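FW: tagging you since you asked about this chain on Friday. Here's the raw sequence from the shared folder, copied in full. Didn't touch anything.
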Amino acid sequence: MPPTPRPLRKLGFLTIGLFDAADPRRGHESTLEIIELGERLGFDSAWVRHRHLQYGISSPVAVLAAASQRTRRIELGTAVTPLGWENPLRLAEDLATVDLLSGGRLNPGVSVGPPLHFDQVQGALYPDTADAEDFGYGRVERLLAAVRGEPVTDFSGAEGFEVFSDRVQPHSPGLGSRLWYGGGSLRSARWAGEHGMNLLTSSVVKAEQSEGPYDFAEIQHAQIRAFRAAHPDGEAARVSQGLVVIPTDGASPEQRARYEEYAAQRTPRTTSPQGPARLLFAPDLVGTSAEIAERLHAHAAFREVEEVAFALPFTFEHEDYVQILTDMATKLGPALGWRPGF
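HL: got it, structure written out here
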C-alpha cells in the first residue's frame, strides 16, 4: 500500500438508466438529463450500464450517441458491455461512429462470458451457432483488433463504383487506447494488463482464497497491482474504481432514511462470498462527504487509483440522483482532492 493515496484526478459516475416499461422514453430522457447535469457540475465522465431483457439501458451506444450531441466535454463510457451479446466487428463500427460524433470522448468498457440466462435466450440470440460461439477473451481480442484498425478481411479496393476497406470504417484514432476491461479476478486483471487495456473495477470481486476472513479492499488492491505489473505502462496504467457511494450532505431526512435502508438490505452479501462464482460485494458507502472521504482514504484499493466512476443505486428517483451528484461534485470530490473539469 502506498503511504498516501494517489490524488483523485478524474471523478465520474455510473447509472443503470432504469425506466418504467409503460413509459420507457421518460427513463431514457432522465438518463440524458443526468449526464447533462454531470457535465454542468464538472464531472469528468459519465458511464451507463448495459442490461438486456431488463428495464435498464439495452443500447448504451445509442444512448451515448444522443448524449454526445447534448454535451461538449464530459467523457462517455459503458460499464460494461457484455460481449457475449455482441458481434465484435459490428460493435467496433458503432463505437467508432459515436467516438467521432463525440469528438473523441467515448470510453467503451467490456466484459466476457456467456450471456446471462443463456440457456433461455440462446434460441433467440444464436439459434444456429450457440454451441460454436466463443464467449472467452477471444471475443475481446476481435474487438480490439477491429477498433485499433487491424485488417478484418483480405479484400479491399474498388468494385465498380464502390470502394471497400479491409479495416473497420470509420476508424477513430485514439479509441483503441480508451478501451476498458471490466475485471473482478486476478486472471482477468492480468489479461487486461497484458493486452494493454484500461481496467474497470467495481463493487464486486471474486474471492479466490478458499477461507476467510475476506477483505474486499485487499482483494481489489491485489488485482490492481497484478494488472499494473502486467501492463506495458506499469504504474501509469489506468484503473477506475466503481464503488456505490451515496453522500447525504444535501439529502432530506426522508432521503437519508431511504438511503440507509437501501444499504442495510444489501449488507449481508458483503460478509462472505456469494454463489458458485464466489462473488464478494463491497459495502455501500452512505454518509456525509467527510465520512465517506475518510473511509475511502483508508481503502487499500482506492489508494491505488486516480479515477473513479461511483455507481448510483439502481432504484432511486431522479431527484435523488440530482442530490447525490451535486454532493459528489461539490462536497465529496473536493474532500478527495479533486477539482471540477470545467
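FW: The mean pLDDT is 96.
HL: agreed, and DSSP finds ten helices and 14 strands in the chain.
FW: great, closing this out.
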